[in-house]
Write a structure and sequence with these properties.
The complex is a heterotrimer. Chain B has 14 helices and no strands. The two termini of chain B are 40 Å apart. By secondary structure, chain B is mainly alpha-helical. Chain C is an alpha/beta fold. Classes of the chains: A alpha+beta, B mainly alpha, C alpha/beta. Chain B binds chain C through residues 41-42, 116-117, 119-123, 126, 129-130, 133-134, 136-137, 140-142, 175, 178-179, 182, 244-245, 247-248, 251, 258, 261-262, 264, 271-272, 308-309, 312, and chain C through 1, 4-5, 8-9, 11-12, 15-16, 19, 22-24, 106-107, 135, 138-140, 188, 191-192, 195-196, 343, 346-348, 350. Chain C: This is Ger(X)C family spore germination protein.
């Protein structure tokens, strides 16, 4: 556990707020309060302070332009206050007046009292409006959040043929809604954290109470509490902070844009972590088997789902092993290639100046370059890059005799196979491991490949995701869970939640089917 | 992190069931048909396998029974309570030596085989060293991880074994198995002796039962695991005999690998299946070596209160040098015989002695009640 | 825990890295793939050793018709190299120097050994040793003896295949199905023969014009693995029936003056040893054959039950004749048991076999003293698709 203490992630640290020389408390004097606020924020141009009077009492509303829903502010707050201010029988004491405003005037859903400058600044900066009344050292913080955000769209990174078209957006509330709409269980819990010393982002931990194993929950909570950094721009930061082993090439949490995937995971006794400002929701703990599953496996009939999974396991095998096996066979074990094929490979390699390993590395890197270029460029240009790279370079390289045609086939096959993995992050792992295999194959042929394979397995069996062994349910073996692993049993037979998650509520369905 | 039910260092009896065949099945099966066919007439070697197998399944059961009667106690602890502490220390030491020489021998053999079938020029030293490093990497991980490795590899090993057997059925000639029951008694005895050397390794049960959460089922599971190994041996032996006949089997250095060489995969996907078989079999051999080394580390760990990593740091060069000590193949065979007899004698004697004493002491205790 | 694992990982990788220039790495195009080998006898040296010539056929990948790239034009797809010497292993080393590429044997398909070589005592076994010992060799390499020079066979230029060795291999695999020779033998089986001290047969090939013929078998005697004689076509057929090593083939019979060709489909032979007297064993060979009528030259209805039975009887007689002829040859003339009776004795009469093992087809030669009875039973299942094509003459019969 050395690696963990390197970053002091185990120690719970007190988040120290950097309120340097400003008075943190609120005063009775309105002007002083306003001045303090302005000073703290250094009079930004988007800070709006609307001053007016109710009867003889000075008051003010402060908000950040652009972060608030202006319609709501005008119609439900300002309008009411102004009408109220013209009334004759106003309460005389400021406290009464303040209470009256708080209790009966503002037609808006969430009002709370703020007692410190610190508190109200954070709220203000996250879109609330603040109501000041002269003579009161309290303020009202009104939830008027509202800004332009992307509407719900089909997830870009995980498209399905069949299944919901909804994807998460950057807005935390919307994302919560999307999950709530999937699971209407009163036990669905949302626990809020605030992350980022400076960014103060909301982070929500979702789980279903009564399913999840309490230890998993405790562990996630413990780890989330240790997060201490300036900002978490994306859920990837959270993932990397709380993962078990950062030396591992394998992702220990799954990220998804799909609410249905999150809902399914939560119902299996996992937790989901939603961070404000990113559509990627983390799912943990995960196991190796999860990484090769797609929601579509469940939406299509079981035979199709099972076959698709088998196909994906095959694809994962090709993505990891194809180039290294090619190197091992061509550079070491030519006897294993069927005779006719061996002769024709030898014929095509005639005149290729590089050994198979260099050839494979060259083509592999070219492929990665193309993929990266395609991902960075705008979509229309990205396609052009694909065509130029794939067809022109591939064809030209063969004609020029730099690589052999079989190598091009292998590289293309590998690339396509690695794109079939439903999870982008595991696909990256596979690609990294592939290069390791290639080196091993170049050094020791098949023997090297099997040694590296053993090493990867050693790593996997020692790896844990939030304390759950990464290799379950293969090992430790839970045969029941094999129903939904390489093959997927028909839905009426999937009556139990995964054993390896040790859920409190074991069954997810009764024996289904026509008879029941 | 000891907070999650099955994720900690404890294992279940199912894992014992896999661990036993994982350590037993290794290099023995590759050459065993030759030795057995040489000792017996025609296909009569199967009798030796069945008889020897039954005996060893029973011994395994006894060993596990002994260990399971002291739930969650380490070998040193319960051995000390039965015989005195100094004797227990000696026994532990003897058993740890078994682990060391077993892994050293197996490492050497796999290096020799890999050189024969996969390489030509690459020195045995390098092949063995790379293999040993991977083994050390595995042993330095968690012990539960090692059992999980067994579970991951064992199905693959069984699948490849079944593939070889199924594909060789095309070459199988039942005439080759005839005549039956013609071996003399001394032939059977010799066959028994030869085949029993392939069953070594089950002594790990003495140590690993301590890790089993509910060891009550462990004896049964260990016996089932041993039967798996016996079954696989039997199948391989009969198929070798049926394909090659007694004479050829007795003259092939590694009949089991030659079996893989003989077969042709339908569709001609691989021209030579022996390399594929051997490559995958390396996993089986890896399991044996890793378990052997780990049990040595485990035993020594209970003797000396030093860190696992340190013990490993001392042991791994030792294993390497023992493995590299034989200069030629004949000396490797001699080392193998030594390892076999040593392990057999030590494990069986330790078990029997401890069992008898525990019976006597157990009887006394019951009498008191 | 975590630290030591990390260190081990780094150590492993670190040690692996400098090995990148590795001992055994050799790219596929640098290998000289040997696909066929032929062995001829050059001369018998005075010291009792033999000088032999090994001809190996190497693939020249650029000449393969599959590689349609420009350049390779009219290059030959193969190259035959002949080197003489005293041992096969030395020769093949020598050959690597000549070929500029290292000879690589895992793709070896056929080995042809000339009759001159196998006619010498013990030479065959010592030549085979290197092919069986070398782990590069597959056990399924096919072996054949050749009438005449063995290397000539490798110079055949086939029309439908690029490589003569491949052509020979496919001829061997396919032509025994139409009769004339027995199933090809692979070196794995040869090893069993060599080890077992029993007599055996190995099929032979010879060059006939632009083609090769896969016909006849050479009879080897077990004690010194010396070939005695090559059986002719009919004798081979008879042998094939007895030892079930023929897949099909045709026999021609004459029934009532009409020539009828029967295509055999399934052959079963059942050999039994009767009698306890080892000096006069009674051996019965019962063959059951199934076949169909392939060709009739007459005009009788094959649906006629009587006629049908007649054909069957005639066919059975013909089979018996063939088998008897073979037995006379191997038992009477050559006095070696290639009929598999010794295997049978070993398998079914182990105790008796113990007493006669050394004197079966050598020494006292009980084999030649035994009586062998042959009987055959032919069943014709299909009369073919048509009854009779000359129907107008049908009434006259």
């Amino acid at each position: 556990m050395v690696k963990r203490s390197l970053f002091n992630r185990n120690k719970e640290q007190k988040v120290n707020n950097n309120v340097e020389n400003f008075p943190v408390e609120l005063f009775k004097n309105l002007n002083r309060n306003i001045d303090n606020l302005k000073k703290m924020l250094n009079e930004p141009s988007d800070l709006v302070i609307h001053e007016f009077t109710i009867g003889n009492n000075k008051c003010a509303i402060a908000y950040i332009d652009g972060l608030t829903d202006k319609d709501m502010l005008h119609n439900n707050i300002l309008k009411n206050l102004l009408i109220f201010g013209r009334k004759q029988d106003l309460p005389t004491s400021e406290t009464d007046l303040f209470n009256e405003v708080q209790k009966g005037l503002l037609s808006i859903s969430s009002i709370e009292e703020g007692k410190s400058l610190d508190e109200l600044t954070i709220k203000l900066l996250s879109g609330s409006s603040v109501f000041y009344l002269d003579g009161i050292d309290n303020v009202l913080i009104m939830a008027t959040k509202g800004w332009d955000s992307r509407s719900i769209e089909e997830p870009q990174s995980e498209s399905l043929i069949r299944g919901s078209r909804e994807g998460f957006v950057e807005n935390l509330r919307t994302n919560m809604v999307l999950i709530r709409r999937q699971i209407r269980d009163p036990n669905l819990r949302f626990k809020t954290y605030e992350v980022g010393r400076r960014s103060k982002k909301s982070l929500i931990l979702t789980y279903v109470d009564g399913i999840i194993h309490p230890d998993i929950l405790n562990e996630v909570n413990r780890r989330l509490a240790t997060i201490d950094m300036d900002d978490a721009p994306e859920s990837g930061y959270i993932e990397q902070w709380i993962e078990d082993n950062f030396l591992s090439p394998f992702p220990q949490m799954e990220n998804t844009e799909r609410p249905d995937k999150v809902a399914a995971a939560v119902l299996q006794g996992k937790v989901a972590i939603i961070l404000d400002g990113t559509p990627f929701v983390l799912i943990a703990p995960i196991t190796l088997g999860n990484m090769l599953q797609s929601p579509e496996d469940y939406y299509e009939r079981w035979s199709i789902g099972s076959l698709l999974r088998l196909l994906r396991y095959l694809a994962a095998f090709i993505a990891m092993f194809a180039p290294s096996l090619y190197i091992a066979l061509v550079s070491y074990h030519q006897g294993m290639i069927p005779s006719e094929l061996a002769f024709s490979i030898a014929a095509t390699r005639e005149g290729v100046p590089f050994p198979a390993f260099i050839e494979a590395i060259l083509m592999g890197i070219t492929m990665e370059l193309l993929r990266e270029a395609g991902a960075r460029l705008p979509r229309s240009i990205g396609q052009t890059v694909g065509i130029v790279g794939g067809i022109v370079i591939g064809e030209a390289a063969v004609t020029a005799g730099v690589v052999s045609p079989v190598m091009v086939i292998i590289v293309a096959l590998t690339a396509i196979a690695s794109f079939t993995t439903p999870s982008y992050s595991i696909a990256i792992s596979f690609r990294m491991i592939r290069f390791g295999f290639m080196v091993a194959a170049a050094v020791l042929g098949l023997y090297g490949i099997v040694l590296v394979y053993i090493m990867i397995n050693i790593h996997i069996v020692n790896l844990k995701s939030i304390g759950v062994p990464y290799s379950t349910p293969f090992a430790p073996g839970f045969l029941e869970d094999w129903k939904d692993l390489i093959l997927r049993a028909p839905v009426p037979m999937l009556t139990k939640r995964p054993r390896y998650m040790q859920t409190k509520d074991k069954r997810s369905a009764n024996k289904g089917g026509r008879s029941s | 992190m000891k907070w999650f039910d099955y994720a900690d260092e404890k294992i279940s009896d199912k894992e014992i069931m896999i661990a036993v065949p994982s350590i037993v099945i290794g290099v023995g099966i590759l050459s065993m048909p030759r030795e057995l066919a040489g000792a017996t007439t025609s296909s009569d070697g199967w009798i030796s396998i069945v008889i020897g197998g039954t005996i060893f399944v029973f011994i395994t059961w006894m060993v596990a029974k002994l260990a399971a009667s002291f739930p969650n106690q380490q070998f040193l602890t319960y051995a000390s309570s039965l015989v005195t502490k100094p004797v227990a220390v000696v026994l532990t030491f003897l058993l740890s030596v078994q682990g060391i020489i077993l892994s050293a021998y197996v490492m050497r053999v796999i290096a020799e085989i890999a050189k024969e079938y996969l390489f030509d020029e690459t020195p045995v030293e390098v092949i063995a060293l790379t293999f040993l490093l991977v083994v050390v990497y595995a042993v330095s991980g968690s012990r539960a991880g090692l059992f999980r490795l067994n579970m991951m590899f064992f199905p693959i090993i069984v699948i490849i074994a079944v593939l070889v057997i199924v594909f060789s059925l095309g070459w199988f000639n039942t005439e080759n198995l005839l005549p039956v029951f013609k071996t003399s008694f001394s032939g059977h005895l010799q066959g028994l002796q030869v085949s029993s050397l392939s069953y070594i390794g089950f002594g790990i049960v003495l140590f690993y039962t301590a890790l089993v959460k509910q060891p009550a089922g462990a004896p049964r599971m260990a016996a089932i695991g041993m039967s798996m190994a016996v079954g696989l041996y039997l199948l391989f032996f009969i198929v070798c005999l049926g394909v090659f006949g007694n004479l050829s089997t007795a003259n092939l250095i590694y009949p089991t690998i030659e079996l893989a060489k003989e077969i042709e995969i339908p569709g001609g996907f691989f021209e030579r299946f022996d390399s594929v078989f051997l490559t995958i079999w390396i996993m089986a051999i890896f399991n044996t070596t890793a378990m052997g080394l780990d049990v040595a580390v485990f035993a020594l760990n209970s003797l000396f209160n030093v860190k696992k990593a340190k013990i490993l740091f001392v042991l791994s060069p030792l294993v390497y040098f023992i493995g590299m000590f034989p200069k030629n193949f004949n000396e490797v065979v001699t080392l193998g015989a030594f390892v076999g007899y040593y392990s057999l004698i030590v494990t069986v004697i330790v078990t029997i002695v401890l069992l008898i004493i525990s019976k006597i002491k157990g009887g006394k205790k019951n009498g008191k009640k | 825990m975590g630290k030591s694992r990390g260190i081990c990982l780094l150590l492993t990788l670190g040690l692996l890295m400098p090995l990148t220039s590795c001992w055994d790495r050799m790219e596929i195009e640098e290998r000289g793939f040997a696909v066929g080998s032929a062995i001829d006898l050059v001369e018998k040296l005075d010291n009792g050793e033999y000088k032999i010539m090994l001809t190996t056929q190497f693939v020249v990948p650029a000449g393969m018709s599959a590689s349609t790239q420009s350049g390779g034009g009219n290059q030959e797809p193969f190259m035959n190299l002949s080197v003489s010497g005293e041992s096969v292993f030395d020769i093949s080393r020598e050959m690597s120097k000549l070929a500029s590429r290292e000879a690589y044997y895992p793709h070896l398909k056929v080995i042809i050994i000339s009759e001159e070589v196998v006619e010498e005592p013990d030479l065959f076994a010592s030549i085979m040793d290197v092919f069986l010992r070398d782990h590069e060799m597959r056990r399924s390499v096919k072996l054949s003896i050749s009438k005449g020079e063995a290397k000539e066979v490798l110079y055949i230029k086939p029309d439908n295949e690029d490589l003569p060795a491949m052509y020979i291999k496919s001829v061997m695999e396919n032509s025994y199905k139409t009769g004339g020779s027995i199933e090809p033998i692979h070196i794995g089986e040869v090893q069993e023969y060599l080890l077992s001290n029993r007599s055996y047969v190995i099929p032979s090939v010879f060059v006939a014009g632009d083609n090769i013929k896969y016909e006849g078998v050479g009879v080897f005697q077990g004690k010194n693995n010396q070939m005695l004689e090559i059986l002719n076509n009919d004798e081979t057929k008879g042998l094939g029936f007895i030892i079930e090593k023929i897949k099909g083939g045709t026999i021609k019979v004459e029934v009532g003056g009409d020539l009828i060709t029967i295509e055999l489909a399934d052959i079963k032979s059942n050999i039994k040893v009767e009698g306890k007297d080892k000096e006069n064993l009674k051996i019965s060979v019962k063959m059951e054959l199934e076949g169909k009528i392939a060709e009739t030259f007459g005009n009788k209805s094959v649906l006629d039950r009587n006629y049908f039975t007649k054909i069957e009887e005639a066919a059975a007689k013909k089979v018996e004749e063939l088998a008897q002829q073979t037995i006379e040859k191997v038992q009477g003339e050559l006095k070696v048991d290639v009929l598999g009776i010794s295997d049978l004795l070993y398998q079914r009469h182990y105790d008796m076999w113990q007493t006669i093992e050394g004197d079966w087809d050598q020494g006292a030669n009980y084999f030649s003293q035994s009586t062998i009875n042959v009987s055959a039973d032919v069943k014709i299942e299909k009369p073919g698709a048509t009854d009779n094509i000359n129907s107008n003459q049908n009434g006259d019969q």
